[in-house]
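Recall the central idea of this unit: under ordinary conditions, the amino acid sequence of a chain determines the structure it adopts. In this exercise we apply that idea directly, starting from the sequence alone.
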Amino acid sequence: MTNDSQEEIILTGMGAAPGIAIGQAFLQNHVDFEDVEQVVLPMSEVQAEVSRFKQAVKEAEKELGRLIKRSPKELGQHVYILEAHKALLKDKMFYGRTIETIRRGRVNAEWALKTTVDRLKQIFKKIEDAYIRERVTDVVHVYQQVMGNLAGTGEKISQPEGPRMILVAHDISPAEASRVQHEWVQAFVTDKGGRTSHTAIIARALQMPAVMGLENVTQKIRTGDFIIVDGDSGVVVINPAEETLLRYQKMKDRFETRQAVLARDANLPATTPDGFTVTVNANIELLEEVVSVLDWGGDGVGLYRTEFLYMNRQELPGEDELYGDYKQVVELLAPRPVTIRTLDINGDKVAEGICAEDGDNPALGLRAVRFCLANPDIFKTQLKAVFRAAVHGNVRLLFPMISQREELLQVRRIMDEAAAELAAKGKPHRFDLEVGVMIEVPSAALVCDLLADQVDFFSIGTNDLIQYTMAADRTNKHVAYLFQALNPAILRLLHQVARVGREKNVRLAMCGEMAGDPLHTPLLLGMGFSELSMNSASVPVVKNAIRRLPRAECEAFVEKALAQDSADKVAALIQENFRERIFGPAPEKPPAL
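Accordingly, the structure predicted from this sequence is:
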């Protein structure tokens, strides 16, 4: 239904890109390619159908190629997202299987393509890592583009008549997002999507506020409606009252002023007023993200996830391929540190032919360092590539999901073997790297004193630590309320690890989402964390918070926080003591939901 009344309506979704936009809506029509009919073809028409599919893919490649060449400068290094879509068009799992289905089943290209994509969706559903799991949206966007070409409709966004309107759509692909013109679009609002989608990444790169995952917003907004988009809180207001409009206009002005200050100071060191300096790093997954680390003032990379190089391939990457990728990242960031995390994925999600059994609980199975220890040749290949890349800059090694000292000792033995094999072949390498372990399993937090003599740093992975401690999957809406970084159980584990780190002279780092929230900064400063790592866009915000908070005061505050008996009470205490210093005077509240 459309909004025929002039009453103020408030909708809540996910804030995907920060900022506030105020203006008229432009509703983009949605073409649904889910209802596809199967047509069985005579053998004489099968080759022509394969050719029709290939032509549709070729047209999509050309369009993406044009977009890459004409991509706005604001998109910067994020053009890799479009390049990834272009590569996906010819991926065996997408392209090869569709052609094979057409030939074997003698079916129409649309049906074969839908069958292929439905199968890929099921594969992605099993992936534990939420970020990687959401990459299925890229497959769906490429599917829509090829389907549009098969249907003769293509993938086009019609231009609104008025300037600087707010684009409202069922979904927006990265290609569509990069195609929009700043002079006529100021924000995105969608039924589908989320904060970690590639479309959200592009929205943030283009500095366009976005609210996604509203489910049925396209049924409630029509072209010409006056709306407000709050990309921070995930709120969309339709037909705002005058009081609401004035409130949000003030919030918009404050946000834009603050962003200008943060951008200006992004490269300044994060030193507290009483002289404690924190290294503020960024998390990355791809080589192309290095530019954003530098643009946002990152001091280095605190978590380089390496799983993408292994996924959905017919064969495993070799030592030279891995070395080439790591070397480029290390050289681009030198002398800044690059912390490379070894393979953290289930065996069934890497190249075909080495599948491991899922088991009833894959999150508790053969994943991360467990998989690597069970497959020492795969592990050694990656370690050799890291040791070779370390010649070119400042490299540190990080091992995920360590749960006991015995695993760490096994890791050390395999490291020795990998270095010896490189030396025997005369390959230049560095073995004297700083080594750290992820503290993301409660057992590791409880025995961190037994791990301390084998490592240089602890890196807390709060996402998994919370999940395993609270026995709560944050992607399960029924138990998501338990996924709280400020829960007393989590704070006590963090405090214990921090105490051991200080006593054993082991550096304290954090690379989970908790690190990127400036409202958590007082606790982390007070516990003694000297290194935080987060998504690139959060770096200047957290640096700014550190520069405003005396460490001594934060140390005293930790004791008060640990005395609280609920996450809500801890959060209230932080708000009361630090919010205004971190963010400035509290803004007027948005309308109640």
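DSSP finds 22 helices and 17 strands in the chain.
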